[in-house]
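Sequence only, no structure available. Ideas?
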Amino acid sequence: MNGDTVIYSLSNPVNGVVFYIGKTTSYLPTRLRCHIKESFTGTTKKCKAISEIIQLGLKPNIEIIDVIQTDYDCINQIYANYIEMYWISQFKAWGFELTNVIGNRLVKEINVRSGYSVWRNM
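Reply:
I predicted one. Tokens follow.
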């Protein structure tokens, strides 16, 4: 995973239902610990879902969906964001009720090397 971006899912270990799609350049168990820690104080639907799983004495399942070779290059990181959005859209199309907070917010991504900005509605 050296320099790669991983697209992953979080699912409920009781019923196997995926409730979140994310991306990381971190080791997956480390990323899962961050989600669990955030769930103690967070108020998002994702945090609530994780809290419910923790209350059962379990942890969410974390699984790799895709791996993108990014090497921390800004353009490749923007590409990784688009791939993440693809997988979120795909899981929603498959009928999963994801807790991802994307809605209609406007996201600005800046390509530092070229100075160009890419605006997209998510």
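The chain has one domain: 4-121.
Hope that gets you unstuck.
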